[in-house]
Amino acid sequence: NLKNQLLADHGHNPLMKKVFDVYLCFLQKNQSETALKNVFIALRALIYKFPSTFYEGRADMCSALCYEILKYCNSKLSSIRTEASQLLYFLMRNNFDYTGKKSFVRTHLQVIISVSQLIADVVGIGGTRFQQSLSIINNCANNDRIVKHTTFPSDVKDLTKRIRTVLMATAQMKEHENDPEMLVDLQYSLAKSYASTPELRKTWLDSMARIHVKNGDLSE
């Protein structure tokens, strides 16, 4: 049946890709507040029914979804920010349940990567509106009784703390872009904060290496 077709290869099949692209299209186009809220509800149902699509195999669909939801966490409308924050929390929480309440590493990593991309793509990301959304996500974790005695609330807190570190360090980097030594120090502290996520640690170490080569500091 259709559900089995959609679930083939952990949801990484042409049919699911087409279905997911329709949802994604709704997020990428300007919508009314009411339409967006309905899209968020529909996405919850999709994540709930087809979790392996987002938490198994390739990370492309989870990545694309995190990126679009995070954009709405910076919306001018507080109601949309709240809904987007709650949807992102749902994605994390569902990931945690999917692993048998062990971790939500997949979503954690994709959120951090998406934030790093958004810094380059979206003007004003990291301002008061976005910080409020991070607080909503933290509050959701702290008030969720079912996961109260698990590692989940502290893992969510760690994620929001890492996001704030990235945003702060990026703002400082812009201030010191003409001071190579300060720039490298900032990138090094950012790389250190990613000890548990090698892909991101490598990204910042590569960036540091490029600065050293550019400045002729080959011993570094």
From TrEMBL:
Keywords: Guanine-nucleotide releasing factor. The keyword Cell wall biogenesis/degradation does not apply. GO terms for molecular function: guanyl-nucleotide exchange factor activity. Residues 192-220 form the DOCKER domain. InterPro entries: ARM-type_fold, DOCK, DOCK_C_lobe_A, DOCKER_dom, DOCKER_Lobe_A. The keyword Glycoprotein does not apply. Coiled coil: none annotated. Transmembrane segments: none annotated. One of its GO terms (biological process) is small GTPase-mediated signal transduction. SUPFAM superfamilies: ARM repeat. It holds the Pfam family DHR-2_Lobe_A. Belongs to the DOCK family. PANTHER family: DEDICATOR OF CYTOKINESIS DOCK, DEDICATOR OF CYTOKINESIS PROTEIN 9. This is DOCK9 protein. The gene is Dock9_0.
